[in-house]
Design brief:
6-stranded mixed sheet; 15 helices; 4-stranded antiparallel sheet; 473 residues; globular; 18 strands
Length: 473
């Protein structure tokens, strides 16, 4: 591997990164559980102090109607320097089922893995690791360039409720839009294709959800006296959900694909460059026997660039020990939809209701609840000059040219569309996660060398972005 002043600094100060993560990951900042509200607040306080220690002259904790966010700013001394805003989150997912963890989830544990040292803990990569590497990256940038201030003005907004759907984040952005004004947004809540595959995410899917209730008889009925003679809501629900996809794996909601922006040939060619071992993926992170989905698309396209519908849960009737011979009065299901470019979450309510109405048999009453809001999909402009700066930065951290950095898409969802829409700035994605990091699952981990490369790439990025001719704000 080659060397650089940025890499030399990162390598010499890895213990600082390790110490930061060891302290931060011990705070169980589970935003979905009200019992951990104090821990989420403590996590924000820890990050604020770490940013002050790093040298940020402005650090504030911003309260919301939910969990607190952390804001920091380090202005560049250079007149007219671009402004970059880093986004991440400091809350984490619940840890259930606890018995499946090999190590206590909030006791960071080093493990030597096949690709190098790993750190196991809830939040190790999602998203505390991805945020923490910026602390070291900023110090490396200043040391390598000999500057007292960064080459670009760097701001951070690190929210505390991303794992709860960011219910108050858009309001926070609007309330502080003047403080958050920027030329480019750097999202550090994603990852790369593989440890040896430098890559940049260029899009994230959106999300909408619905809960469906089907009602039949007014009460549970004796299946011997009434079965086969009255409608069974669970039978109707099974048929309804079976009709969610056609024989080609396409979602059958009316109008579902009307606004979907199709992949261009160039986009498909770029995605096709990403090395992908489907059998290893099935045996590893997917933990599945076979790949399936919408016909005519590769697995990578299905999970990153095509909209989907998934049944998340279905229940009703009796599920206790033994048996209870009934025709149940009700059946329930939860369904979520991942959305891609140009789809609008608000459209899903009408589409789901029309689909349920068309597939509900006589004698069954249907109720559909679609929560307002949802998450809009987002994408980067791969031809924006800021993207070239990102690719150069990642390439330098991986000892390769910018033209060797591949483009990937993230199948998950977050508030990035709100960031881009409210602040009016382009999106870049710089994350150090891997598909094998078990985010949201027991035994979440981060491959530590990926964090080191993330810190180095961030150090290069502030220098590279200073050369980008952003339009006047």
């Amino acid at each position: 591997m080659s060397s650089s002043a940025e890499r030399d600094f990162v390598t010499a100060h890895l213990d600082d990164l390790h110490a930061d993560l060891d302290a931060w990951l011990r705070i169980p900042s589970i935003s979905a559980d009200p019992a951990h509200a104090g821990d989420v607040a403590a996590s924000a306080e820890w990050l604020a102090e770490a940013l002050r220690r790093t040298g940020f002259p402005t650090v504030e904790i911003w309260p919301t109607a939910g969990a607190p966010a952390v804001f920091a700013e380090w202005p560049s001394a250079d007149a007219g320097a671009p402004v970059a805003l880093v986004y991440g989150h400091h809350d984490v997912q619940p840890v259930d089922p606890l018995e499946l963890w090999e190590h206590p989830p909030f006791e960071p544990t080093r493990v030597e893995g096949p690709d190098g040292p790993e750190l196991h803990a809830r939040g190790a990569i999602d998203d505390k690791g991805n945020v923490a590497f910026h602390l070291l990256g900023m110090r490396a940038h200043l040391a390598a360039t000999g500057r007292d201030t960064p080459a670009v003005t760097v701001k951070l907004v690190i929210e505390g409720e991303e794992e709860s759907g960011s219910p108050y984040f858009a309001d926070l952005l609007r309330a502080h839009a003047d403080r958050l004004a920027c030329d480019v947004i750097v999202v550090s809540d994603t990852g790369m294709a593989a440890p040896d595959v430098p890559s940049a995410v260029t899009a994230m899917r959106g999300l909408a959800d619905a809960e469906i209730t089907l009602r039949g008889p007014a009460v549970d009925l004796h299946s011997g006296s009434f079965g086969g003679a009255v409608p069974n809501p669970l039978h109707a629900m099974a048929e309804l959900l079976a009709a969610l996809h056609d024989e080609s794996g396409r979602v059958t909601l009316p109008g579902f694909y009307d606004k979907v922006r199709p992949l261009t040939e160039r986009e498909r060619e770029l995605m096709g460059r990403v090395p992908f071992d489907e059998q290893a993926w099935l045996a590893g992170p997917a933990a599945s026997r076979v790949a399936t989905g919408e016909a005519g698309f590769s697995t990578l396209e299905r999970i990153g660039a095509r909209p989907t519908a998934e049944v998340n849960g279905m229940w009703g009737g009796y599920t206790g020990p033994g048996h209870k011979t009934i025709v149940p009065a009700e059946a329930h299901a939860k369904v979520t939809f991942r959305l891609v470019a140009d789809q609008v979450p608000a459209d899903l309510g009408e589409q789901v209701r029309a689909w349920v109405q068309a597939n509900t048999p006589a004698g069954i009453e249907a109720d559909v609840h679609v929560p307002p809001g949802g998450v809009a999909p987002c994408r980067s402009d791969i031809d924006h000059p800021a993207m070239d700066a990102l690719l150069r930065s990642i390439g330098q951290a991986f000892d390769t040219g910018a033209d060797q950095v591949l483009f990937t898409r993230e199948g998950g969802s977050g508030p990035e569309a709100d960031l881009a829409g409210i602040l009016g700035a382009p999106l870049l994605f710089l994350g150090a996660g891997l598909p094998t990091d078990r985010i949201h699952s027991p035994n979440e981990r981060v491959l530590l060398p990926m964090l080191y490369r993330g810190a180095e790439a961030a150090a290069h990025l502030w220098r590279e972005l200073a050369t980008v001719p952003f339009p006047a704000r």
